[in-house]
Specification:
- The structure holds 2 protein chains of 2 kinds.
- Chain A is an all-alpha fold.
- Chain A contains 13 helices and no strands.
- In chain A, helix 9 packs antiparallel against helix 10 and helix 12 packs antiparallel against helix 13.
- Chain A starts with a helix and ends in a 7-residue tail after the last helix.
- The relative contact order of chain A is 0.14.
- In chain B, helix 8 packs antiparallel against helix 9.
- Classes of the chains: A mainly alpha, B mainly alpha.
- The interface between A and B is large, with 52 and 48 residues.
Amino acid sequence: MQRYLISRLLMTIPTLFGVAVITFILLRLIPGDIVMLRYGTGALVSEDVLRAERARYGLDKPLHEQFVNWLWGLVRGDLGLSMWTGKPVAYEVAIRLELTLQLAIMATIIAVTLAIPLGTLAAVKQNTWVDYAVRVFSIAGLAMPSFWLGILMILLLLIFFRWSPPVVFTPFWKDPLANLTQLIWPALAVGYRYSAVSTRMMRSALLEVLREDYIRTARAKGLVEYLVIIRHGVRNALLPVVTVIGLEFAFLIGGLVVTEQVFNLNGLGKLIVEAISRRDYTMTQALIMLSAAVFVFVNFLLDLCYMWLDPRIRYR
Amino acid sequence: MQTGLAQEATLLRKAHRQNIVLRFVRRYPLGAFGAGVLLVFAAAAVFADQLAPHDPIANNFAVMFRPPSPEYPLGTDNFGRDVLSRIIFGARTALLVAFTSSFVGATLGALLGVISAHFGGWVDDLIQRITDVILAFPLIILALAMVAALGTGTLNVIIAITIPMIPRVSRVIRASALALREMPFVEAARALGASDARIILFHLLPNVVAPYLVMLTAFLGQAILLEASLSFLGLGVAEPTPAWGLMLRGAATQFAERAPWLALAPGMAISLGVFAFNLLGDALRDALDPRLRL
């Protein structure tokens, strides 16, 4: 098993390398660079200044050299300086990570507390009005764009409570109440969609499990129905649900792009949109690598989870 | 003129077809509802020129921010454009993007998945590793970066939505095709000396139609959402093309309190469209390939 885990970890290296290559190429394909964006294309600044500026960012070197330099930095854990702010990328990420991470965790909590009971209920009461209600609720959650849900929330809060999202983020450890009143709305907007995905998975996984022989055995030996469902059903249906929850969580770290925009939250998602539009190569590259690394790492953890949740799974 | 027998056969076939539709409606009422909504949307998209009461693009500053009225059923926006007309024309954009990207994405994905499963070995390894890489990108960020590189506009949005879709489809199709590969009829074809192309095109592909269709419908809704998100961020369909996501950008949030209809109508259109596609997709999944988890 140890050997499997090690080879599984090693397998992530080519994946991350591939992400690095695609990211690097994709960014250079975006027309214009940061120097052009800062100084414009007009004749206001002389060619010499532009050339000097490009040299300062290392943009004058051949592409392969730029790539190798960046990759070497990555390997050493050095993400470089943000081209736009001049501060270390690691610093810019660190000050925003707290917000995005907290939002992702809150959304996950909302999703899990909704999804597991609702999905179970829908599966147990399959094809009754309960099932239909849960399914419509969750399909609606998939259908409503979270940014629109966010706009509606802000609108309603403004009309009924004269409350609008604050411009500055209050960290949890400074003022928990202010922090939660600020983040609960975006967490709900994201969490609804997230719970919808998980509810659907919970329902379909449990439906499949409930058809298994051991469920019939459990019922035949006279076990109370709710124990059959919980002990034999839900526990065995959790595996794919955990997968969905893990993968969605991984995507939230880099993918809260639109929600953060709507609620005016200065997190990683907003940062990446800004970084792309500013042609801040170092920043964008770091953020994409970060979200890919989180995704790959979560996948690895999920594999570990499988072994723990399902003793039948033995990897070679 | 058809002979009596042929006529009867045609009638029977017709009755059978109606029967299938009826059976689908009865067994999957939610799916049928979704299909109905989509027909309305499709009609709006096709007959937008005839249906829209006003020009969706022309500015008319005399009638800015009009609340809903008989003249402007859904009000007007900050340029005095009729919101209803923009919603109707927006259906055209949404469905064009959704259908093109889902069709191309699902087809290429299916082809790759089947090729991967059929050849196995290094071909499979290569395709799977590339798939791993693309799957490691958050969907929205990959699409975002691609639109930034290609430039905004409807065609580029379609490309940016199609590419991330391919590996997701190919994974599912590959799993189905792997099971098929061991089936006696495929083995028989191989024993008869059928070429790789023949086995892939005539034996494998027709048998993955069920998961293919299910994936395709599932992605239709997602494509609409993704297009709306990109347009909302200003990295999607470009003004003045009427698009639902674009209508939620800027004025809709800025003047949300003064003119709430600006935020309500496009969001409703997006949600209803995606909702309908998902209902239909679920029903199709239950009918065609119930073991597929989406």
